[in-house]
């Protein structure tokens, strides 16, 4: 495919790369956008409001052997994009408009964009030289916080450029939306937040909610005032962290977190790693607090929530019922370990379950790739979705519930007038994309290309 001159998005990517190079950090800029005019290759750049994507592969239905789904039926289509939505979806070659710019997808599979709903864009080693985390054996969370207090001043000078580098990485994996936790601590003050907001301002096609995150403990680090200043800067969520293990006072810590949310009419997204009975008690206290403050209903996300993995039987059922009644959501990295999170049970109760990268590479973990297809793959492995149907359903965890086919095999996405936020993947169907973690060839936000291979 032929490429056009750099767009504003590419220019911003190059600007971010320049900032990294000036700071001594290596950075591979995303490739130029995929689209090339198939009839007039030297006409305007691809970032236009009205165009056609040709030879796009869409899922049409399931193939069955009796009642078993054994394959996915697909066909090629030409798709017209106008003002960020799907304006027309036609069989390939049936309704081409030579007056519009046309770009050939060459049979790549069209899937919904993915969302990274738990990531830390503000503090990362990504974009710099390789650096593995130090050994964790024998280290407590307080030891890790002490380590971070040393690292944060070293990361701050390049934190904006590194955040922009991760945004480029996420775009390359098909992600166009995120929720990022951002440190609010005595070491960085509000600087991490200021840098993150600058990074996001340079990437308006990457909508991102921000959680003010008291990584060093809301009470322990005495940042209530800074958290309130963060709310005044437009942050959407109040964060929290292990109220017993870090703050040493479960009720006081959670009360302080919820009070900020109530005072500023914001949502809550709390990290809860505790697997002891204190973790279970914290979840129950949150349920009770929401019940007493109905304005919080539907606005509280439990991130990680490993304590749920310690429950079973009636105790788990009652906890899930309480969470569902208060319309809590869960953000899980789909961890593999001794405890298995009861994600299907949560979803069966109507609880929204999201997933995210958490760490791309930092002093906590080196394993994040930024791929939500990888998270769908983990979901399929953990919850026995290795067949065609199960693999295709696992995609929902990455896309915020959007699936090309319904459970009955009817095409439900894309439809005319749907938002054209999407990715082109080198796969024959959703099941293959999830099982093989297939390469993303292009990513679009509201119809505009933000990445191509």
Task: State Rg.
Answer: 23 Å
Task: Figure out the total of helices.
Answer: 13
Task: Note poorly predicted spans.
Answer: 1-45
Q: Ends: how far apart? A: 10 Å
SSE string, helices as H and strands as E: HEEEEEEHHEHEHEHEHEHEHEHHHEHEE
What percentage of the residues does DSSP assign to strands (E)?
Answer: 15-25%
Strand order of the largest sheet: 6-7-8-9-10-11-12-13
Shape: globular
In this structure, how is the largest beta sheet organized? 8 strands, parallel
Which properties best describe this structure?
TAT_signal, Metallo-hydrolase_Enzymes, 453 residues, 23% strand, 32% helix, single chain, Amidohydro_3, four-stranded mixed sheet
Brief summary:
This protein is of the alpha/beta class and 453 residues long. 32% of the residues lie in helices and 23% in strands.
Description of the molecule:
- With 453 residues, the protein is α/β, with parallel strands linked by helices.
- It is built from 13 helices and 16 strands.
- It has helices spanning 8-22, 141-155, 159-172, 191-201, 224-232, 250-264, 277-292, 313-325, 343-348, 372-382, 388-394, 396-399, 430-436; strands at residues 50-65, 68-82, 85-91, 102-104, 109-112, 114-119, 175-183, 208-213, 237-241, 267-272, 300-304, 329-332, 353-355, 422-425, 440-445, 448-452.
- The strands form 3 sheets. An 8-stranded parallel beta sheet has the order 6-7-8-9-10-11-12-13. A 4-stranded mixed beta sheet has the order 3-2-1-4, with no helix packed on it.
- Strand 7 (175-183), helix 4 and strand 8 form a beta-alpha-beta unit.
- Helix 10 crosses helix 11.
């Amino acid at each position: 495919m032929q490429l056009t001159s750099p767009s504003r998005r590419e220019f911003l990517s190059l600007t971010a790369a320049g900032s990294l190079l000036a700071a001594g950090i290596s950075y591979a800029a995303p490739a130029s956008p995929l689209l090339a005019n198939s009839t007039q290759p030297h006409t305007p750049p691809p970032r236009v409001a009205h165009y056609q994507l040709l030879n796009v592969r869409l899922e049409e239905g399931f193939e069955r052997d009796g009642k078993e789904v054994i394959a996915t039926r697909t066909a090629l289509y030409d798709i017209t994009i106008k003002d960020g939505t799907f304006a027309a979806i036609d069989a390939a070659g049936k309704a081409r408009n030579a007056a519009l710019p046309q770009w050939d997808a060459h049979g790549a599979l069209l899937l919904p964009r993915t969302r990274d709903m738990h990531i830390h864009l503000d503090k990362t080693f990504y974009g710099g030289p390789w650096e593995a985390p130090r050994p964790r054996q024998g280290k407590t969370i307080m030891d890790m916080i002490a380590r971070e207090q040393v690292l944060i001043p070293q990361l701050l000078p390049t934190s904006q450029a590194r955040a922009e580098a991760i945004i480029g990485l996420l775009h390359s994996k098909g992600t166009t939306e995120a929720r990022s936790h951002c440190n609010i601590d005595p070491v960085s003050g509000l600087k991490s937040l200021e840098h993150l907001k600058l990074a996001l301002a340079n990437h308006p096609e990457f909508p991102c909610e921000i959680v003010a995150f008291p990584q060093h403990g809301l009470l322990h680090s005495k940042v209530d005032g800074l958290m309130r200043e963060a709310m005044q800067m437009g942050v959407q969520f109040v964060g929290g962290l292990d109220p017993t293990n870090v703050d040493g006072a479960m009720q006081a810590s959670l009360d302080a977190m919820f009070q900020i949310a109530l005072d500023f009419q914001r949502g809550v997204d709390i990290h809860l790693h505790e697997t002891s009975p204190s973790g279970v008690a914290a979840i129950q206290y949150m349920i009770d607090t929401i019940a007493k403050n109905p304005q919080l209903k539907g606005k509280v996300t439990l991130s990680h929530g490993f304590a749920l993995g310690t429950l079973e039987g009636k105790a788990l059922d009652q906890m899930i019922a309480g969470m569902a009644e208060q319309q809590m959501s869960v953000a899980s990295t789909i961890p593999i370990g001794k405890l298995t999170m009861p994600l299907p049970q949560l979803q069966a109760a109507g609880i929204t379950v999201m997933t995210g990268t958490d760490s791309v590479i930092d002093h906590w973990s080196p394993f994040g790739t930024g791929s939500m297809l990888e998270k769908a793959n983990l979901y399929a492995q953990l919850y026995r979705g290795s067949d065609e149907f199960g693999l295709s359903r696992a995609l929902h965890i990455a896309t915020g519930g959007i699936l090309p086919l319904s459970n009955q095999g009817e095409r439900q996405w894309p439809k005319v007038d749907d938002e054209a936020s999407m990715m082109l993947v080198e796969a024959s169907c959703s099941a293959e994309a999830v099982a093989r973690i297939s390469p993303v060839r292009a990513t679009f936000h509201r119809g505009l290309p933000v990445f191509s291979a």
